[in-house]
Design brief:
Radius of gyration: 26 Å
CATH class of one domain: Mainly Beta
Number of strands: 34
Largest sheet: 5 strands, antiparallel
Structural class: mainly beta
Number of helices: 4
Shape: globular
Helix content: 10-25%
Distance between the termini: 86 Å
CATH topology of one domain: Lipocalin
Length: 465
């Protein structure tokens, strides 16, 4: 039966309406998907680039061994920059150890990587915001989350992440303290510690890597209100505030020591070396480091301290750059008193850290912001064992009977025998990948040497086959 014109018009009109309706639905869905991708890109996104050299492959054995040992915080499990690994190469090929992989897009920064819970965590800065990157070494998948504000003065992430019970703790350049649930990939809590506690710092901002101990996160804002605070690691609520020394914060990350039956937090502020009771926040002792030990030129080096203290068997060692002096302090049997053992003017370490091995201290000193020598001191007496020129100053790490010395001027890294006989280089190579300063301290974990430079992280294979 033939349809009249009115019927034909209604049918065509109906089909046209359906087509428009479906097109609008498709456009809506596309827009929603696009917006979701943008949001995902803004908060949890993949690192920009990952390079696997042609000779590299990630075997099942590599992936299983990738995180058998952990480096859960600044300078390792004990904050002494010593790796407990063995079976590492005792010399390298002429061009250096094999590059396992290189990862880019980590943001600007000089913090070191943390390896724990099966993942690698690195902090960085992008567009004046700090963020955390989580890298899975088993399949090289990655996610990232923004957590804080960057400093406007020489911006770049300084705080290395601390991993504890499934959470990452970081302190931003501007003094925000943050807890991140890595399973949920979201911020658990966050406080602006610098503002809340009326902090007082120098122009480079905060460079403290958080210490987590006994259910607390410790932060050193300094200022007129307090010196150090303890936060509940689960909630961020304040547990205690220490008394104020009316001082500026330094760039030191604290350590926890045990003397007798007492645990003590040890750190360095602008003017003082302090020991703090982690349960109460009371000062166990405070030592006027700058007032008692001026530089060789008798200059006050307020707030330039940037080196984590060393501790062993009742003895502390503290040093600082810019011609300041290093000192050794002896603790009483219960740690409630301290006394000066010796001082030294040679090893004024800038920010590369120091190592204690077999009763000798190793590190580099400061001649100026580009230059310095590599020095060995006797732990017991402070006597200078050697003062050796090699490129420039830098950072240092100990693993499997060897020192890893990473000079910051040209990026050379050397495998050095830790012996008082002299600065004996076994092998060396130059870090040419990445951009910017060679300031981030190296890490060795699970047979990999990790070097962070700028927004890049390189993993070198240093395991004996």
């Amino acid at each position: 039966m033939a349809l009249d014109k009115r019927t034909m018009y209604n049918k065509n009109d109906f089909q046209h309406c359906i087509s428009i309706f479906m097109l609008k639905r498709i456009v809506k869905i596309a827009v929603v998907v696009f917006v979701c991708l943008l949001l995902y890109k803004g908060s949890m996104f993949l690192v920009d680039k990952l390079y696997l050299p042609a000779e590299s492959s990630i075997s099942k054995e590599d992936s299983i061994a990738a995180m058998a040992v952990e480096w859960p915080q600044w300078h390792g499990p004990n904050r002494d920059n010593r790796s407990a690994e063995n079976g590492l190469l005792k010399s390298w090929p002429d061009k250096g150890p094999r590059l396992f992989w290189k990862c880019e897009g980590l943001g600007k920064g000089w913090s070191s990587p943390t390896l724990a819970g099966g993942h690698i965590y690195v902090t960085g800065v992008e567009d004046e915001k700090e963020f955390l990157t989580c890298l899975n070494p088993r399949d090289l998948s990655k996610w990232t989350i923004f957590y804080g504000s960057a400093s406007k003065m020489y911006s770049g992430a300084r705080s290395s992440p601390t991993f504890n019970d499934g959470y990452i703790y970081v302190i931003s350049e501007t003094g925000e303290v943050i807890c991140i649930d890595v399973k949920k990939q979201m911020i658990e809590w966050k406080i602006n510690g610098y503002r809340i506690f009326s902090g007082k710092c120098h122009h480079f901002g905060t460079a403290e890597s958080p210490l987590v101990f006994d259910g607390k996160v410790f932060y050193t804002p300094c200022g007129q209100r307090t010196t150090m605070v303890a936060l509940d690691k689960r909630t961020g609520e304040t547990i205690w505030e220490s008394e104020s020394l009316d001082d500026l914060s330094s760039y030191v990350s604290p350590i926890i020591i045990r003397r007798g039956t007492q645990d003590i937090i040890v750190t360095v502020t602008g003017m003082y070396i302090i020991g703090v009771n982690p349960k109460t926040g009371e000062f166990v002792w405070k030592y006027p480091y700058v007032e008692n030990h001026r530089t060789k030129a008798k200059v006050n080096t307020l707030i330039q301290n940037a080196v984590t203290p060393l501790y062993h068997d009742g003895q502390l060692y503290v040093t600082s750059g810019y011609d300041h002096v290093g000192i050794a302090l002896k603790l009483s049997e219960q740690g409630e008193k301290i006394s000066l053992l010796w001082e030294d003017e040679t090893l004024d370490c800038h920010h590369g850290g120091v190592i204690l091995h077999n009763s000798y201290i190793y590190g580099s000193n400061w001649h100026n912001n580009l230059n310095g020598n590599w020095v060995c001191l006797d732990w017991r007496t402070g006597q200078v064992i050697y003062d050796h020129k090699w490129f420039g100053k830098g950072s240092i790490l100990y693993a499997d009977g060897m020192l890893y010395c990473y000079e910051e001027r040209q990026g050379n890294i050397a495998l050095v025998k830790p012996a008082p006989g002299g600065f004996e280089i076994v092998s060396s190579f130059q870090i040419t990948k990445g951009t910017g300063e060679h300031w981030a301290h190296p890490v060795i974990c699970n047979g990999r040497l990790y070097i962070r430079r700028g927004d890049s992280l390189m993993a070198y294979d240093v395991k004996q086959k």
